[in-house]
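Table S2 (text version). Query chain:
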Amino acid sequence: MPMTREEAVELLHQYIKNGRMLNHCYASEAVLRALAKRLGRDEKMWGLAGLLHDLDIELVNGDLNRHGIETERILKEKGVEPEIIEAIVMHNEALTGKKRHTELQHGLAAGETITGLIVATTLVYPDKKIASVKPKSVIKRMKEKAFAASVNRDNIMECEAIGLSIEEFVQISLDAMKEIGEQLGL
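Corresponding structure-token output:
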């Protein structure tokens, strides 16, 4: 039987204690669900991939040479769908030595990465409220390499691999995060 969202949230809280990391996972879930809806894909499946993609980040102490391996082990034990597990492992593409090739893999890489740029953009607004952020501001900040320099712009541009322009992708992602802005403290 597929993992429920409630079970996924419980698992997330078992492995992640940092509030900002939890918020990143919830934001990623919201974005992935919105992308799935727009593309006519399984919103629950895409949402779970977003929610659980960083499950092992604290377990491996942020070691990108191991990030994803523990999540794969944990989720296999829980009987999570292989497509979700593969997308999660592939969001840390460098670890695998392979290239992302499915819609879910590209969607997760782009979707979880855009959340960081949106949060950084929100935090430079005077009111620090995501409701105030406009898509054009996020796109403008994306072009500024020094702004949120750790955000991988190439990952964000994988939105094109799932048939979305950067403008539409930012709009979908921003709208999804605005819906949970209060939960994110933004």
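Notes on Table S2: The mean pLDDT is 96. The two ends are 35 Å apart (CA to CA).
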